[in-house]
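REQUEST FORM: STRUCTURE PREDICTION
Request ID: SP-0412
Submitted by: Lab K.M.
Chain count: 1
Length (residues): 361
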Amino acid sequence: MAFYIRRSLRVGPLRFNLSKSGIGVSAGIKGLRVGTGPRGNYIHMGRGGLYYRATLPSPSKADQPTLPAAPTPAARPTIETITEIESGSVFQMTDSSSENLLRELNDKRRKWRLWPWVLAGTLVVVPQLSNMGISETIGGVLMLLGIVATPFIAYWDRLRRTSVLLYDLEQDAVARYQQLHDAFDALGGCARTWHMSAKGATRDWKRHAGASTLVQRKPIKLTKTPPNTIKTNIEVPSIPVGKQTLCFFPDRVLLFDRDGVGAIPYRGLTVEVRTGQFIEDGAVPTDARVVGQTWRYVNKKGGPDKRFKDNRQLPICVYEDVAFASTTGLNEVIQLSKTGVGQQLAGAASAQVVERDAQLV
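STATUS: Completed
RESULT:
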C-alpha cells in the first residue's frame, strides 16, 4: 500500500502548504487569511469571485537558544541472571544534523500544560472565595468561566506543544521510503509481535521446559501514527518498545519517551535479524512454524517429569528477532511470529542512507 504525502496540513488555526517554491503558512477564516511563504508575507481576502491580495512587510528573524548539554545516563543494575534490554537516554541520541530539530521538539515537550491548573483553580479555589466575602453570584460566574475556558486552554496547550514536520521528497526518496513502508507492512502482517524487555540464562532447565535462556516480552501493536505532539504530512511507521517509541521518518529515526526525544540517522542505525527456536507457553500464532514439542517440566531424557501433575506439552516454534542498535545507546529487540520479514526491514533501513534526498522544510 502506497503511503500518502499531503501537500497541505492543518494544525489548529494554521494551514501549512507545500509548493514547488517552498512552504507557506496561513491563518484566518473563510474569505480572509493572513500568511507567509517563499515570496513573503501577505493578506488574502474576498469571496464570490472578487479577491484582493497584498504583500506585508517581513519581520527580522530572532536568534535561537542553544541546547544545554544532556547528563550522562546511569547504568541499570542487573536483576539476577535476567538482563534488561533497554536503550540509554534519548538526550544522548543525536547528531549535528538533528540538533535544531531536537531543540524544538524537546523545548515544546517541556512546556507546562496550563489547563489542569485552570481546572483545579476553578474546582478548588473558586468555592473557597465565599469564605473571603465574595458573593455567591460572582463565585458562580467565575466557576462558569473557568469550566468554559478549560477546554479552550487545553486546545491552546496542545497547539503550543505541537511540532510540525513537513517533508518534500524527491522521486528517489519516495521510492526508498515506500520500500520502508512495504517492509513495515510485512511486519504488521505477522500474527503476533512482541517487544523483548529482558533476557538471561538459566541453569534450572528442568523447570523451564528444557530452555537455557529466559526472556520477558510483551505484545505490541505497530502503527503508522507518530506521537500526538507531532503533526506531519506523511505516514510514519512507529514501533512501541517499552517506555519508548521508534518512529521511522524519511531522514532519521526519532525515539520518543516520557522525558524527551532523541534522533538516530540511518547511517548510525544497525538492524540485526536473528532466527531461533522458542518454547511457546501461550497460544501459538497462526503463522508460526512449529518444529517440535517439549514438556513444561522435563527429565534428563527430554520426557515428561512425572513428579508434576499439571505437566503439559509445549510447542517449539521458530521465531525471528529484530534488534535495533546504535553507538549512541539504542538497544531494543522485537520478536516476530513469522520468519523472513525482518530482513526486509533491515534492507529498507539501509536503503535510507542517502544524503540530501529527504528534505525537511
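NOTES: Residues 61-80 have pLDDT under 50 and may be disordered.
Reviewed by: T.R.
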